[in-house]
Specification:
CATH superfamily of the largest domain: FAD/NAD(P)-binding domain
Number of helices: 13
Strand order of the largest sheet: 6-5-14-15-16-13-17-20
Bound molecules: adenosine-5-diphosphoribose, P-hydroxybenzoic acid
Strand content: 25-35%
Largest sheet: 8 strands, mixed
Shape: globular
CATH architecture of the largest domain: 3-Layer(bba) Sandwich
Number of strands: 20
Radius of gyration: 21 Å
Structural class: alpha+beta
Distance between the termini: 35 Å
Length: 385
C-alpha cells in the first residue's frame, strides 16, 4: 500500500491533521493503536483558544462547538481565599471556549472519510531519511505502507519520537512533585467561569464541560493512589481549598470519572527528522494549568498541514523546512506560561517561607496591575501563531 502522508495517532493532533489534509485532497492514512471507543473514552482538558476555534471552523467541524460550547470571557483566580476575576474581553478583547477535548475528537472522527486504521499494533517507522515506510500488525497480520512523509502525532508515549536516534534529539524536561486528581460529575458548575485556586493545602481547579457537567481537580502528591480518594474525601478536600462562599455553593454528587494525572513540562528539539515530523504531545508536554496542551497540538498541526500540502503538491519545501523552528517558538512561549501558572498556583514541598512569599507577591502584583493581568489574558486566550 502507498499514501502521501502516514499519520501515527488518532488523538486531536492526528485527527485534525488528517482532516486538513483530506480537505486539501492530500492522501493520508491514520494508524492508531487503540480502538475508537478507547480514544473517545479519554477525559482531558476543555478550553479552546480563538486559534483552535478558527481551526475547527477551517476543518468544517465547528458547528457543534458553536452550538454547545460555552464562551468564557474571563476566569477567577483565588489565593488563600482572596479572589481576583480577570476579564479577558475587557483586558485584551478576546475570549476562550469551553468545549471538551473528547468532543473535539468526536467531531473530527465523525467528519473523517479517509482511512483510519484502529487497533494497529506494533507500529514501526522505517527509513524516514530516505525511503519512508511504516509497518504494523492488525489481526495478527503484518502490513507495510510506503509514503512520502510521516507525521508523529502519537502522544508522549508514542513510537515516533522514540524512533529518532537519541543523538539527533535534545529534550528539555521538568517533572513536578505532584499530580492532579480530577473528578467528573453530573452537577452544575459551582460558578459560571473557571476558578484556579491556590491554597496552603494545595492547588484546586473548578472547571466544567456543560451547564450540567462539572470537572474539578485537586493537587495531590505524585505517588497518591486514586483508590485512596472516595468521592466524599475529594469534595471535603476541594471545599477546604476554595473560598468559603464558593465552597458553600458547590454541588457535589457521585463521580462519573476519577483519575490522577502527573504534571510535566517537556520539549523535544528539533521536530523534523528527514521525512518525519513530530506534533502535539509527541513533541511537547505542558502541565495542564494554562490549558495549553490541546491548543498547542492544534497550532502545530495547522502549520504542519500547510507545510505538507505545499510539499506534496510540489509547490515548495519552504514550509517543511521552516516547520520545526516556527512551531518551537510558539511552543516555548506556551511552556513558559504553563510553567509560570503552575509555579504561582501550586504548593511546592521545597518552596520554603521565601518561596511562599514570592507566590503571594506574584498574586498581589497580578491583582493590582492591569498590565500583569493583560499579560496573563494575552497568554491564556492564546498568542498568535
Ligand atoms: N501507534 C499508534 N498510535 C499510537 C501509538 C503507537 N505506537 N502510541 C500512541 N498512539 C496513539 C494514542 O493511542 C493516542 O490516541 O496516539 C494518540 C495520541 O493522542 P494524544 O495523546 O491525545 O496526543 P495529541 O493528539 O498530540 O493531543 C494532545 O492531548 O494529552 C492531551 O493535553 C494534551 O490536549 C492535549 C492533547
Ligand atoms: C479541564 O476542564 O479539564 C481543564 C480546564 C482548564 C485547565 C485544565 C483543565 O487549565
Amino acid at each position: 500500500m502507498r499514501t502521501e502522508v502516514i499519520i501515527i495517532g488518532a488523538g486531536p493532533a492526528g485527527l485534525m491533521l488528517g482532516r486538513l489534509l483530506e480537505l486539501a485532497g492530500v492522501d493520508a492514512i491514520i494508524l492508531e493503536r487503540k480502538s475508537p471507543d478507547y480514544v473517545l473514552g479519554r477525559i482531558r482538558a476543555g478550553v479552546l483558544e480563538q486559534g483552535s476555534m478558527d481551526l475547527m471552523d477551517r476543518a468544517g467541524v465547528g458547528a457543534r462547538m458553536h452550538a454547545e460550547g460555552l464562551i468564557h470571557h474571563g476566569v477567577e483566580l483565588s489565593f488563600d481565599g482572596d479572589r481576583q476575576r480577570l476579564d479577558f474581553t475587557d483586558l485584551i478583547g478576546r475570549h476562550v471556549m469551553v468545549y471538551g477535548q473528547t468532543e473535539v475528537t468526536r467531531d473530527l472522527m465523525a467528519a473523517r472519510k479517509a482511512q483510519t486504521i484502529y487497533d494497529a499494533e506494533n507500529v514501526e517507522l522505517h527509513d524516514f531519511d530516505t525511503n519512508p515506510h511504516v509497518t504494523y500488525t492488525k489481526d495478527g497480520v503484518t502490513h507495510r505502507i510506503d509514503c512520502r512523509f510521516i507525521a508523529g502525532c502519537d502522544g508522549f508515549h508514542g513510537v515516533s519520537r522514540q524512533s529518532v536516534p537519541q543523538s539527533a534529539l535534545t529534550t528539555f524536561e521538568r517533572v513536578y512533585p505532584f499530580g492532579w486528581l480530577g473528578i467528573l460529575v453530573d452537577k452544575p458548575p459551582v460558578a459560571d467561569e473557571l476558578i484556579y485556586a491556590h491554597h496552603a493545602r494545595g492547588f484546586a481547579l473548578c472547571s466544567q464541560r456543560s451547564p450540567t457537567r462539572s470537572r474539578y481537580y485537586v493537587q495531590v502528591p505524585t505517588d497518591e493512589k486514586v483508590e485512596a480518594w472516595s468521592d466524599d474525601r475529594f469534595w471535603d478536600e476541594l471545599r477546604a481549598r476554595l473560598n468559603p462562599e464558593t465552597a458553600e455553593a458547590l454541588q457535589t454528587g457521585s463521580s462519573i470519572e476519577k483519575s490522577i494525572a502527573p504534571l510535566r513540562s517537556f520539549v523535544a528539539e528539533p521536530l523534523r527528522f528527514g521525512c518525519l515530523f513530530l506534533a502535539g504531545d509527541a513533541a511537547h508536554i505542558v502541565p495542564p494549568t494554562g490549558a495549553k496542551g490541546l491548543n498547542l497540538a492544534m497550532s502545530d498541526v495547522a502549520v504542519l498541514a500547510d507545510a505538507l500540502i505545499e510539499a506534496v503538491s510540489e509547490k515548495s519545501e519552504a514550509g517543511i523546512n521552516a516547520y520545526s523552528a516556527k512551531v518551537l517558538d510558539r511552543i516555548w512561549k506556551a511552556e513558559r506560561f504553563s510553567w509560570w501558572m503552575t509555579s504561582l498556583l501550586h504548593t511546592f514541598p521545597d518552596a520554603g517561607a521565601f518561596g511562599r512569599r514570592i507566590q503571594r507577591a506574584d498574586f498581589d502584583y497580578l491583582a493590582s496591575s492591569r498590565i500583569a493581568q493583560q499579560s496573563l489574558a494575552e497568554n491564556y486566550t492564546g498568542l498568535p501563531s
